[in-house]
Amino acid sequence: MADNLDLQEPEKPKKKKNSGSISMPVFVGSLLGMGLLVAVVVIFILQYVIKEPDAESSGKDGTEQVEESVENELSELDMDEQAFLEDEKSRRIMELEEILTNPLGSTKFVQISLSLTYRPHQDINAEENLKEESQFYKKIKTKTINTVSGTLRKMDETAIKNISYEELQEIFIEELKDYYAKNKLFLREIYITKLLLVN
Q1: With pLDDT > 90 as the criterion, what percentage of the chain qualifies?
Q2: What residues are paired with 28 via a beta bridge?
Q3: Per 3-state DSSP, what percentage of the chain is helix, strand, and coil (rounded to 5)?
Q4: 88-198: CATH, from 3.30.479.30, 3.40.1380.10, 3.40.50.2000, 3.40.50.80
Q5: What's the CA gap between 125 and 179, in Å, rounded?
Q6: Which of 16, 32, 43, 135 has its CA 20 to 30 A from that of 6?
Q7: pTM of this prediction exceeds 0.70
Q8: Is 149 exposed, middle or buried (0-12, 13-18, 19+ CB in 10 A)?
Q9: Which parts of the chain sit beneath pLDDT 50?
Q10: What's the burial of 144, exposed, middle or buried (CB within 10 Å: 0-12/13-18/19+)?
């Protein structure tokens, strides 16, 4: 029996199989990390939401703020224009001949030809951007033609017959002035050279 005892080896503790559970420190660390992430996201969202009512409480919505910034830019451009009004060589002329459109409620056509004088802002490369082939010039010319024809389409025949050239020129200047200023051009004058009602 003694030999039997000596031959027996002590039992080794059996290793437990890993059943997919994680240790307690790893579990606590994961929870703290997720809690911290959620806290950061909530704080960020609250800051964003809190900023929105401030803009509304001041009485200015987004469009009013944009309009204010455009007005500020326009006033800056007006000051820049004064600086080089005496420089005649920077003056440009755009001629628009025989624009045709229908007056309001009429089958007749209005035919108008006009010339515009403007000056480019010093930031614009006038030699390149104001060539007739350039996309910038074509965009300005198209907008001008659309504005002129759109204004005439809103008027009926009698209004077109009774309006003076000077009044119509002022209407065109008022409608185009801001667009030109946004594109850094100073619209100076518009001259109507022809205005006819044709069948």
Answers
A1: 31
A2: none
A3: 55, 20, 25
A4: 3.30.479.30
A5: 18
A6: 16
A7: no
A8: middle
A9: 53-60, 83-84, 86
A10: buried
Token output for 123? 């930031």
Three-class DSSP labels, 149-195 = HHHHHCCCHHHHHHCCHHHHHHHHHHHHHHHHHHCCEEEEEEEEEEE
Spatial distance between the Cα atoms of 152 and 139, rounded to a whole number of angstroms? 20
Q: Which single residue is written with the structure tokens 């960020």?
A: 44
Q: Which of 189, 179, 194, 192 is nearest to 77 (CA)?
A: 179
CA distance linking residue 156 with residue 197, whole number of Å: 11
- CA 65 and chain centroid, separation: 13
Among candidate residues 177, 191, 148, 192, the one with its CA nearest the CA of residue 77: 177
Amino acid letter, residue 88? E
> Which residue type sits at 180?
Y
